[in-house]
């Protein structure tokens, strides 16, 4: 904390005056007369790194968060000196460093202040552990808003909040509870219609204070390590989010089935129980692509084993489930049972792969198998060994995905729920204590798991999910928000958590639909399904301690609602797949809070509920019981009510009537929304038509559709189809233009065009400048038009 009076007696230390500086290519070094060095590195014109040391030299520069495969570059860099400060100027910003105390300020090129130090960098010696507690305070402008920080169970706008980052197993966490499972020390500031970002890349326990202690001060600090942060300039929020996502990395495209509906429980066993669940999904025609096995599938909770009583022939079972379209996903935890007859334990012991305490003994803690040792995933040799362990599960048995849990790391029956802080880690050749490695332990486990699953799933794509994560974990894994609760408040929390994760670089995230702990009512489960199908990762999961949570555990009405909304998700799979493609190609978040969508509209700055799904669908969940409607904010522009096709003008709050089997959904005017026929699982059907819902707009609108073989790596060789559509709406004409990129030829040959909101009766149709007689095309009910997909321009002309 910046002004913690309990620590003040030890004294905060500050940089003194700058005595020299040097400019080396993309970096500028500033030296003070008390041995502080500030290294300023320009990575891009809008991305600048600030790194401080207090000891006169820098330690090895190493980060698990930064995507080293991506190169950076700037267009312009000028370093100059005036009487009171040094200036570093790029083509986007100006950074001024005060000579007297190294405090800095950043301006745009028009001299508008973006960010400035208040106390700036300061530190306090850590007498207990050695090193420093490093601190930074920034002045906050009136009306400034703050967003990001990954998985937080609080308001989307963080103004007035103090938050803590320390990966923690928080079973049945509550609103505003800190800390949670994930650590993303990245925030976005917005003031005067301009946006910037700060990524504090420090893996120690960190804290952020957004004007909580002092009204116009935003501060962040860490219990060790360096003051090492990246400044990202927008001025649009999408620029900040895209740059941060690019900096920390993007995943590869998942198999399409991973975007389907998944069903999980602690636990499905024996085999007959799992088969009953599978059969019921198919009987009720509720689409489902994946079934999960929790810890009870193992023999005594030993990783990479099977309980032969429950699952006598797992390879046969997995193959039989696959014949009916179900992919099997299994859990793997980090704790390895201490058992000299257990081959995994014996090998790790012989090769010295387990984490050790400071004085030499192995770290020992109790988790599900009992007393366990824990692999040091920060050691690349251990990660390689761990990856190799997946051969039997993936190659031989046919498991399609792996789920890493308890990897904060969680330890039972100890006060702090995790390893003692003296545990030692390799940290990829940078040996350290658990104080530094704790927050990245789960990510390095997910990394090792990802490489193993990828190796043995080849030529198919891997699927991994993790509970704990640090910034950059999205390169290896999807995630979920942990052990939530079956309450209406948690439905509200889930909605915000996934939005926040999406703008914090980790887009492939969802919540346990219905709540993990306790038992939802049918109404709550239905409302959660209606939200969950619009989250990138879509899975029902429950503890099982409080009853069943499959869709058929509720009444017929809830079953019907579940079928309706899960089926809608399967129809929207090409839209969702396109969202994911834009995420991995351009760093565009799949879910967009309203402030991201339109930061210049101040009415969006404190909105929590509504979000944009992809680029053109507005979703507003029902978050209270007994609701037959709600007030919601519709962002600026023209939008169509998805259920009624009635057009509304945005930029205002409106009341929206809904039924129990609906939530407020709106589609941007001019949008083209691609839809597949309803399938019970991905790849079930071969179809000859892609439905395009075309929403009329007076003016222009662009839409895109990405498709490939739905799995495998041919898309990296150019075998994909990327369609760019443009609608041009006139008073008595609608023009649809399409341009295709890529070498993939889709299986379907026709578009079924659903014309919505057309303000005129169709008189004639021209395709690629040729008039088409109505008897040469299929025209249904004045709004469905079926045409060959090989066209570049379609004119629909009215009377």
Which keywords apply here?
alpha+beta; nine-stranded antiparallel β-sheet; 52 strands
Characterization of this structure:
By secondary structure, the chain is an alpha+beta fold. 18% of the residues lie in helices and 32% in strands. A 9-stranded antiparallel sheet has the order 5-6-7-8-9-10-17-16-12, with no helix packed on it. A hairpin with a 4-residue loop joins β8 (104-108) and β9. α5 packs parallel to α7 and α9 (522-532) packs parallel to α10 (556-571). The N and C termini lie far apart (70 Å).
Structural class: alpha+beta
How many angstroms separate the termini?
A: 70 Å
- Strands ordered across the widest β-sheet: 5-6-7-8-9-10-17-16-12
- Mind describing the biggest β-sheet? 9 strands, antiparallel
Shape descriptor reads: globular
Q: Nearest-angstrom radius of gyration? A: 27 Å
Helix content percent band: 10-25%
Strands, total number: 52
If you average the pLDDT, what whole number results? 96
Q: In oligomeric terms, what are we looking at?
A: single chain
Indicate the proportion of strand residues: 25-35%
Low-pLDDT regions: 5-9
Number of helices: 12
